[in-house]
Amino acid sequence: MQQTTSPGSQSDSALRIRLQEALTGTSFQLVPASPVTTAAADWAMARTPGGARLVAVPAAGRAGALAEFEGEWSESNGVQVLVAPLTARNAAALRRHLPWLVPRSLPAGTSAGFGDRLGLATPGHVQALRAAGGSIAPVFAQQSIREMTRTGRSPQAVVDDATWGSFEAGWTEGQGADADHLKTAADITACAAAGFTMFTIDPGEHVDPRAESAGPADLRAAWDALPWEQLEDSAPSMRARLAGRAFDVEGHRVSLDEGGLMKAAVKYGRAIAHVKTMFRHVCDVKAGQPFDLEVSVDETDAPTTPAEHAFVASELRRLGVRWASLAPRFVGRFEKGVDYIGDLAAFDADIRVHAAVARAFGPYKISLHSGSDKFAIYDIVAAHTRGMVHLKTAGTSYLEALRAVASISPGLFRAIYEFARERYDQDRASYHVSATLDGAPAPTRLADADLPALLEDFHARQILHVTFGSVLTASRSDGRRVFADDLRSTLQAQPEVYRACLERHFVRHLRPFAGR
Ligand SMILES: [Zn+2]
Hints:
Helix 3 (122-132) packs across helix 5 and helix 7 runs parallel beside helix 9. The two termini are 16 Å apart. The radius of gyration is 25 Å and the shape is globular. The protein has helices spanning 12-22, 88-97, 122-132, 145-151, 155-169, 185-193, 216-224, 235-242, 258-286, 306-318, 344-361, 378-385, 396-408, 410-427, 458-466, 468-473, 484-493, 495-514; strands at residues 29-30, 36-37, 41-48, 51-58, 72-76, 79-84, 111-114, 137-144, 176-182, 198-201, 245-249, 252-256, 292-296, 325-327, 365-368, 389-393. The longest helix is centred in the middle third of the chain and has 29 residues, at 258-286. Strands 7-8-9-10-13-14-15-16 form an eight-stranded parallel beta barrel, surrounded by seven helices. Strands 1, 2, 3, 4, 5 and 6 form a six-stranded antiparallel beta sheet that branches. The protein is built from 18 helices and 16 strands. By secondary structure, the chain is α/β, with parallel strands linked by helices. Zinc ion binds next to loops.
């Protein structure tokens, strides 16, 4: 990714020695990948008895450049040292000094979104990216408003956790930040203010599923009732423009006869109007700053046909919407945390044409939502999208956290699994999952050593996947968290265990896309 400023090129060892000297007499441990130097200071992350801290040693005469940080100054061997907590104010100040930590719009080409519900996964994501090779542009900060609500995190906290994680891992190659599944203008405003650069508009509530089954009279009535004014169109002009139209996309004939047009318009017309409104709102709040818009209709019941995709794209274009990626609802089932369920030949035929439509009307990227663990289709997706693809994973970094906890602290993991089973029937409501409680091993029948294997069990995996919000926010009567604090401190005590789990998991996701 393009950089506005490059990190300092000074030799790593000289930099480490200077920082190490500045920390003489403390028990602080430098995080090895983190040291970086700029004209104003040497910077690093350090583990301290009180938790992780930012350490900065200003260049001679430059201490004033660090005035915006909050923290404690000391002097050691004649050099001044700032030790600063990982606060929002310090994250913002650090981004001003290290501009490669500022989220930015993504380049064309392959990109991947890594959701991180705990805010501790970025160093592991970086390790996976490095191990996978290739040039996949990452999105570390990626949460939907629903996920933020369920985990009690603010948009700013999500961005800041990715800032600290990237800094800790020494990631200087840029990153996007995805405000996922946005449904309202107010959420866009809040996420833009926090520094998000990718806005995934989910108009799913405006997709009309009745179009699939409505008879001719009902379809006609729904067509007449479309919000024509918002669509800046009229029924006769849309019919004249599109009925009987055939798009030739790379040899595939994608056509809309009169009935097909009415069905597509009834199904997606209100969604298109909504996306237009949201897009214009993003333009307003970003005020000329670059951003990436994603249009996602993946969470609808019926698959998006290639003709419907072409209809949506041509109408969004007519309305002046500019988007970087689009997530159709593909054939088959994209359940959380498990492999693709469906006919691979049918999926191949489906995405082949969707990718061609995306090239013909863009080019823009095809976005693969619920993209984690879909190992059966990665090669197919990579082949047809030819590098114009965004792979979006969300909850499996949390599952990898649980895998790490299962090996470090079996008792904590067992308690989480028992609680998740109690919550599953309620929490599954808003997700595409088919696991059953009976299908998952009962906790009483498992020895500690068997617990990590639950993360390979279809049923246990989905049960753990969809209950993250309940687990992370469960509180005792005195307000303390039942699991969340122990979960975080367990992972932070042995960060290399969590990083290794994430690397192993994500390398398998990234490799199929890394060579293109
Ligand atoms: Zn999605």
